[in-house]
Amino acid sequence: MSDLFSTILSSPVAKRAGVPQPTRLRRFEPGMPLCEGPVLVAGGGRFADGVAFWLGSRGVATVRTPSDASDKLGAVVLDLSAAVDPAELDQLRLLGAPAVKALKRNGRVVVIGTDPATLSDVAEVATQRALEGAVRSIGKELRAGATANLVLAQGNASDGVRSAVEFFLSGRSAYVDGQIVRVDESTSGEVDAVRPLTGKVAVVTGAARGIGADIARVLSRDGATVVAVDVPAAGDALAVVANEVKGTALQLDVTAEDAGRRIVEHATTRHGHLDIVVHNAGITRDRLFVNLDEDRWRSVIDVNLRSILRMNEAILGEGGLGDGGRMVCVASIAGIAGNRGQVNYGASKAGVIGLVTALSRQVADRGITVNAVAPGFIETEMTARIPFATREIGRRMKLAAAGRPAQGRRRDRRVVRPARHGCRHGAGRAGLRPEPAR
Ligand code: NAD
Fold first, then answer.
1. Which of 180, 77, 86, 76 is closest to 128 using CA atoms?
2. Is residue 197 a contact partner of residue 222, using CB atoms and an 8 Å limit?
3. CA dist 134 to 131, 384, 417, Å?
4. Residue 420's closest CA among 231, 234, 163, 239?
5. Could you list the active site residues?
6. Burial of 129 by CB count in 10 Å (0-12 exposed, 13-18 middle, 19+ buried)?
7. How far is the CA of 206 from the centre of ligand 1 (A)?
8. Can you tell me the ipTM of this complex?
9. How far apart are CA 298 and CA 411, in angstroms?
10. Backbone angles phi and psi of 282, in degrees to 5
11. Mutate which of 203, 205, 211, 285 to test ligand 1's pocket (most atoms within 8 Å of Cβ)?
12. Which residue CA neighbors atom 41 of ligand 1 most closely?
């Protein structure tokens, strides 16, 4: 898909004219360093020492003040988890502002706080909740591929904090910005930093193309055995993806009565178990509300929402997703902000978010996490159906919102790591910022 604006922007003429050039984002590749440049670890919280020690063990240089660094900083990790009074928020400015000035391209700001939900003192809750507003706002100010994210710890979740910090520092989180991740004490032990999903079996629905195919590729890259699911009509493309990721293909319509049972059967008989399910299959059937016919309404609700509920009966039943499993549902920014012409789609995706919120509580005691990802505008065959002018506005708004022009055909992926409980919406730099939606 050509992007005329990006082509003009990166032309020699534009460069000579001094038009700001896009930053090439640091994307994860096996073998790349966790962070490019020293990491400032500061703040008086309960995790800073452990994070600094762990970074050292990973060969990453750490400093305690910006002036200690001889080079520009690759990242700054600020631990404000012990702040109990709003006056202490000033640490964020005192420690963070000079560090942000000294950040390299594609730098990272990670703030660690305490989950306000675990606190009762009013001033302390207010202080910790303030971090959310601050981090989302810092994220909006950062340029040149840098991101800012917040890790909220429940109790002494040191392994969970370390795992989240690792994700945010790495190239895996290139598109994750302004996000809040909660971690609790149930995460423990080290994971393989390069192939963290080794030994896991993952099912991805709607995997024949678009976002689903890319999810399958990433899960496979990270070590999982992938079962790629899509409708029989997409069988050829599905086989190509399944072969590419060295997984298996399962042709089925997710709305079929027995879809969940067939998924479990396929995963367990072919691969021995089922550890990860990504409910990604989805459709749009856009019309203004007043023109929405029954077929457009029903098909979107059925494919995007009801199928997940139905499949989950088998997937979460006996012999399905094992304890400690992971489920991710692909929602949409349209399910948060709504979108013109998409009452059916917006309803279905908001429903997915509700489903995730309720279900995550129900299965928490089995150590299963259920999360939602709410992407903004990602160019796929789904968005190719949008009229040209609307699509161009979508692209431009996305770029403006991201504060950096795209490199060619960029696919924004706003993915948030599984958190222990509840729903995390990876919804762009400001979390809930309305963007042109699909
Ligand atoms: P896409 O149309 O390119 O791919 C969707 C895939 O799902 C296709 O391979 C299709 O065959 C499959 N599918 C559709 N109905 C199915 C069914 N009944 N059973 C099995 N498979 C079925 O779309 P995409 O852009 O890759 O979207 C993937 C997901 O991301 C969807 O849930 C979509 O709503 C969501 N999403 C997309 C965007 C975007 O901008 N592209 C934004 C937000 C959310």
1. 86
2. yes
3. 5, 36, 21
4. 163
5. 345
6. middle
7. 6
8. 0.99
9. 29
10. -165, 160
11. 211
12. 378
